[in-house]
Amino acid sequence: MSELITDVLVRNGLVFAFLFVGLIMLFSFWVARRVLRGLIPGVALAILLGLGLAFLGGERGIAEYPLFAGMALLGGAMLRDFAVVATAMGADLDQIRHAGPAGAVALLVGILLSFLLGTLIAWSMGYTDPVSLATIGAGACTYIVGPVTGTALGATSEVMAISIATGVVKTIATTVLTPLIARRVGLDNPHSALVFGGLLGTTSGVAAGLAATDPKLVPYGALTATFYTGLGCLLCPSVLYLLLLALAGG
Amino acid sequence: MTIYGVALLAFCFLAGKVTGTLLGAAIGINGDVGGVGFAMLLLIFLNAWLKRRGWMDGPTTGGLLFWSSMYIPIIVAMAAVQNATAALSGGWLALIAGVAVTVAALLLVPLLSRIGRPQSTRP
């Protein structure tokens, strides 16, 4: 009997994911309002709860369990990007126009900062060869830039794993820290949201962090963040790696 | 009709992705550079243009607004399928580097936000 019911839920994974996420939202908003009395927004709580569930699973988070496989489709890149594009309906073109230059600068500064800081920390913790340093620095950009750079330069699989992990930590840290720190860094308007998207660059982190802070800002952050990974894949294994070689005196 | 709105969104999405992929190929990356961004700009322009012509009726806009409002649940699902265990497997280096980079970037937001900001918003 219960086996038959589970079977129905597994075979209709996406529909079950709608129900499951709906229940998470219901629970989060209830707790946020009744228990925490508005201390943490319901959206932020729901995202944190989602992250917590991810720790229970494996490589694909909770979708490792067949019952929750539909979550991977609902929360996958295709539907995420589809919904992000739809949020552009609420975006103001004038805001984008006057923040454009700042967004472009933020993209370059964001990649340079992540790469150099990531490299510096890797160096301080005992890595000295330029390939490993560049791969970990690239991972500090996003968890896609890391392995792309590592593959291009021929890094070891151990360094690749650290590089990917660094990118994943950045995504999670962005999700959790953004709503906490948003007011202090003036992240409350479209202009700074565009800059934020360019500086952080992790599409998932920027999207989740802004959603937890103020959903109205999401389209602006997403607009710049979408260029980050591509630019990172372009710059890290080429210009930035050569810069690193020059700094190392090679 | 509602499907017109969804189809319009799908058109913008795919056109943006194709543009991003072509741009990626042009600069020698096997991937998508800014696809979502191009799709968003296209949607903003098409929406304004169709509105001026009076072709965006209630149900059509509804098809778009539905997906826009599904955004947060999708992000919750996305959070639940992150490779969270990988974040721990990288050891202290990954944890320290990931958090440090995030904090540093967040602290630069107020500084870079000054570029091109209209004077009226900050008296």
Low confidence ranges of chain A: none
Helix content of chain B: over 70%
Question: Helix proportion of residues of chain A, in percent?
Answer: over 70%
Radius of gyration of chain B, taken over Cα atoms and rounded to an integer in Å: 20 Å
Count of the domains of chain B: 2
Portion in strands of chain B: under 5%
Find the count of extended strands of chain B (DSSP E, 2+ residues): 0
Largest sheet of chain B at a glance? none
Shape call of chain B: extended
Number of helices of chain A: 12
Radius of gyration of chain A: 20 Å
Content-based structural category of chain B: mainly alpha
Pfam families (chain B): MadL
Transmembrane segments (chain B): 34-50, 62-80, 92-112
Keywords (chain B): Membrane, Transmembrane, Transmembrane helix
Organism (chain B): Neolewinella marina
Structure in words:
The complex is a heterodimer of chains A (250) and B (123). Chain A is mostly helical and 250 residues long. Chain A folds into two domains: 2-75, no CATH class; 93-247, no CATH class. Helices cover 77% and strands 0% of the residues of chain A. Chain A has helices at residues 2-11, 13-35, 42-56, 69-74, 77-86, 93-124, 130-139, 145-153, 157-181, 190-200, 203-213, 218-247. Chain A is globular. In chain A, 55% of the residues are buried. The model of chain A has no long low-confidence stretch (mean pLDDT 87). Chain B is mainly alpha-helical. Chain B has two domains: 1-82, no CATH class; 83-115. In chain B, 76% of the residues lie in helices and 0% in strands. Chain B has six helices and no strands. Chain B has helices at 2-26, 35-52, 58-69, 71-80, 84-89, 91-112. In chain B, 42% of the residues are buried. The mean pLDDT of chain B is 85. At the A-B interface, helix 2, helix 3, helix 4, helix 5 and helix 6 of A face helix 1, helix 2, helix 3, helix 4 and helix 5 of B. Chain B: It comes from Neolewinella marina. Chain B: This is Malonate transporter subunit MadL. Chain B: InterPro entries: Maln_transptMadL (IPR004690).
